[in-house]
């Protein structure tokens, strides 16, 4: 009887490992919003790590988080580190690419609760007096992340804060 239980347990573990291994390694999540303002009014809020804190959804998740900014807070080379609760975690972001009124690329390094590196970006597309802002994140999932994604939607977990942040960015820029 004990031998049958061990065999069944081994089969379940093998099936689980195979299912997890077959999950996609790469992910991409993106959300967009149309802001009633020209790109020149939106861009500074995506290209300056200090200004991002005015509309960041993660700042709301942990108002007591600590933020440390490098001397340069905007444009290529700007860096910001944070340390917060279990929702905010701990990490660092660095602007790696910046094209005025068009694009901001960021290297996002998570240190806690799990170490990982992702690429995030803000793409601005002017359309008359409006600007479509797309916030994206892409990266690779290791085995544990793939297993986690079997029970939690990564798209929902990241996408919902993106939607909230973009709505706050829209309200902030359109208010001015």
TrEMBL record:
InterPro entries reported in the protein's UniProt record: Polyketide_cyclase/dehydratase, START-like_dom_sf
**Coiled coil (UniProt feature):** none
User: What CDD domains does the record tag this protein with?
Assistant: SRPBCC_1
What Gene3D superfamilies has UniProt attached to this entry?
3.30.530.20
Q: What is this protein called?
A: Polyketide cyclase
